[in-house]
Design goal:
The protein has a single domain, classed as Beta Barrel (OB fold (Dihydrolipoamide Acetyltransferase, E2P)). Helices cover about 15% and strands about 50% of the residues. The chain contains 1 helix and 5 strands; from the N terminus they run αβββββ. The chain has a 5-stranded mixed beta barrel with strand order 1-2-3-5-4. Strand 4 and strand 5 form a beta hairpin. It is flat. The N and C termini lie far apart (about 55 Å).
Length: about 160
């Protein structure tokens, strides 16, 4: 009887703990407009695949994929959305991302090839460093900023 009560109490506490953790599991994603200062490729990998078809008299086709891991140093020009990262214009941050290309229509670049001096709007997440004011982030969703879009700072958090 005591063992059954102990198991029921343990199961109930796990249920309460899991429901209290679930709402806080959201990944904070901020959006900033940045000026690219430098681009530093970290690693490069190319894979080539050959497929031979013996039915067609030995026809050979090949496909390839390339993946480049990149760290880009960028200066924040405007904070479009600060989701708790503590960002401000003028801050220099590192953006980590991968450029993936390949032959065929299946492969589309996850991130564009960027060059120093260009301006991009990018979503950042998973900051490295101190919880607030970290300077190294994963980057995704690269877009060119609109020419007449108003830039605002959402320093208070989510809109």
């Amino acid at each position: 009887m005591i063992r059954r009560s102990f198991l029921m109490l343990g199961a109930a506490s796990l249920l309460v703990a899991s429901t209290s953790i679930a709402p806080g599991a959201r990944l904070p994603v901020s959006q900033v407009t940045v000026e690219i200062l430098s681009v530093d490729p970290q690693s490069y990998q190319r894979d080539e695949y050959r497929r031979e078809t013996f039915k067609d008299g030995g026809a050979v086709s090949s496909t390839w994929t390339e993946k480049t891991a990149v760290i880009t140093k960028a200066r924040i020009k405007a904070v479009v959305l600060d989701d708790g990262h503590g960002l401000s214009p003028g801050t220099v941050i590192d953006l980590r991302y991968e450029v993936v290309r390949g032959s065929g229509p299946v492969y589309q670049a996850r991130a564009p090839e960027v060059n120093p001096g260009e301006t991009w709007t990018v979503g950042i997440w998973n900051g490295y460093g101190p919880p607030r004011g970290g300077t190294s982030f994963e980057a995704r969703g690269w877009t060119r900023p609109q020419a007449n879009a108003p830039a605002y700072s959402n320093a208070g958090g989510r809109p």
